[in-house]
Amino acid sequence: MSGAFLLARHEWRRLVVQPFAWILAAVVLALMAWQFLLAVQAYLAIAPRLGGLRDAPGVTDLVAVPLLRSFSHVLAFVVPLVTMRSIAGERRAGTLPLLLASGQSNLRLVLGKFLGAYGFVAVLTVLVALMPLALASGTALDLGKIAASLLGLLLVAAALTGIGIACSAWASQPALAAGAAIAVTGLLAVVDAGARMQGITNAGINYLALPTHLEPFLRGIVASVDLVYFLLVAAVALALAARRIDALRGSAQP
């Protein structure tokens, strides 16, 4: 696994020296900070009326959880942009043969790319989660629910990163990889839309949808079925990426 971690460090360094990565991070954090401030302002406006209600929702339910739920939608577009150059960029630059000749197995190559990109996305996720925690000194927060929500977002980020790496492995251009990853993520987000319109919420089709497994985390519920789902999506995506790397390795041999 040392080879995978070396590749992950290389991928991380390549990301953080690119102006695109910094601009993307700045835009995302500015957008989420603006939404956070608007949510706090809205909460302060209705707080006097909430004081007289029994079991009234607090800052966690009205500010923190909506912010993190909104960030899950942002991840669907951010992660493909982060992962699109992982392998497709190597092919376009002509450096993929050098990477394949490094002696690393297909799985280690894919894991290295995955860990490098996921580290960047995970840092963004944690920074967004820290925004509502800034209110802890002035109000009571449900830290357990926020922790569960953060865990859910990190799992979503892992699944989306796996999908992005797979699309980057199969696409010949980074832009195509990003578009394919966004399309696959969108499909997983709405795959059960028709069933929900018919009032079906506990069928197998609902199990395939990403939001179905994220919502329990946002309610403070950590269930093994949801953990397995996100890990399974990431594992299947990385397996597909490794298979594609194997095919590329075969085609590169004389």
Number of domains: 1
Portion in helices: over 70%
Largest sheet: none
Radius of gyration: 20 Å
Shape call: globular
Query: What is the helix/strand order?
Result: HHHHHHHHHHHH
Q: What are the key terms here?
A:
254 residues, mainly alpha, 0% strand
Describe this structure in words.
The chain is an all-alpha fold and 254 residues long. It has one domain (2-252). It is built from 12 helices and no strands. The longest helix is centred in the N-terminal third of the chain and has 32 residues, at 19-50. The protein is globular. The mean pLDDT is 88.
In brief:
The chain has 254 residues and is mostly helical. Helix content is 80%, strand content 0%. Helix 1 packs across helix 6, helix 3 (59-83) runs antiparallel to helix 6 and helix 7 packs parallel to helix 12 (224-252).
Describe the protein's topology:
Layout: H1 2-16, H2 19-50, H3 59-83, H4 88-93, H5 96-100, H6 106-133, H7 143-170, H8 174-190, H9 193-197, H10 204-207, H11 210-218, H12 224-252
Helix pairs in contact: 1-6, 2-3, 2-6, 3-6, 3-7, 3-8, 6-7, 6-12, 7-8, 7-11, 7-12, 11-12
